[in-house]
Design brief:
Blueprint (H helix, E strand, L loop, with lengths): L8 H12 L4 E7 L5 E6 L2 E5 L4 E6 L6 E6 L3 E2 L5 E2 L21 E8 L3 E7 L8 E5 L7 E3 L3 H4 L5 E2 L2 E2 L2 H5 L2 H4 L11 H9 L15 E4 L4 E5 L2
This protein binds 2-acetamido-2-deoxy-beta-D-glucopyranose (2 copies).
One 2-acetamido-2-deoxy-beta-D-glucopyranose binds next to loops.
């Protein structure tokens, strides 16, 4: 899904012209949990959301590897540095990178070839908060992950405030697929997640049943605790 790094100059200029006339996508992030969630986005930063509050961000067309997640049980020191039980991003309220597992992820690659957005909910970095991701226009399907994953988390994967992905815990190719396609597949652990969240990206090559598309230019809504 990534663009090649060495585009010929003319192609780069065309791409810039194209993006200049394409609108950013809007993401409405809503906390329906009965606890505070410190929402986070890369790119986009972060914000505290009490129960019922929402936050709207825009993400530039052509952005790949965008993700939105929630952090739980954050505390702040006198210097404003935060420490969150799940999803922490180096102590920053406004994240400048990804969060620490376990964290349920909404992932996006916008305005890809054929004018498509790609999106999914992933538990490849574990699960902390139930999530729903809905395209708000263009009639595309929503994805949801709200099964009892924390409650039923296998002992080996249990983590304060969430349930880890086995790759985080064991760090071997069987779970991480670092050696690429053909070297890994679904496992007992990935099936544990898939059974409870069938729409969800449950191991690193789980594209077939969990990567969705919508026309570029779509806006999205992300709900914590749908
Ligand atoms: C939050 O919701 C859960 C599940 O519905 C419930 O068990 C819990 O008591 C609620 N907590 C508060 C603080 O309202
Ligand atoms: C926050 O931490 C408290 C105390 O450890 C725990 O009871 C509670 O479930 C946690 N809240 C969330 C949202 O994880």
């Amino acid at each position: 899904m990534n663009f090649p790094e060495n585009l010929p100059l003319t192609v780069s200029l065309l791409a810039i012209t194209f993006f200049a006339y394409t609108h950013a996508a809007t993401f409405d992030i809503v906390n329906q949990c009965n606890y505070t969630v410190w929402a986070a986005a890369s790119p986009g930063g972060g914000r505290r959301l009490d129960q019922g509050q929402s936050w709207s961000i825009s993400i530039a067309p052509g952005t790949t590897q965008a993700r939105i997640w929630g952090r739980t049980n954050c505390t702040f020191d006198a210097n404003g540095r935060c420490q969150c039980e799940t999803g922490d991003c180096n102590g920053l309220l406004e994240c400048q990178g990804f969060g620490r597992p376990p964290n349920t992820l909404a992932e996006f690659a916008l305005n890809q070839p054929n004018n498509m957005d790609f999106f999914d909910i992933s538990i490849v970095d574990g699960f902390n908060i139930p999530m729903e991701l809905s395209p708000t226009d263009n009639g595309c399907r929503r994805v949801i992950c709200n099964g009892p994953i924390v409650e039923q988390c296998p002992d080996e994967l249990h983590s304060p405030g969430g349930c880890n992905n086995p790759c985080t815990v064991f760090n071997i190719n069987e779970y991480c697929c670092t050696e690429g396609p053909g070297t890994c597949g679904p496992t007992t652990f990935s099936r544990f997640f898939k059974d409870r969240c069938p729409d969800t990206y449950s191991y690193p090559l789980d594209d077939q049943t969990s990567l969705f598309t919508c026309s570029a230019g779509t806006n999205y809504r992300v709900v914590f605790c749908p």
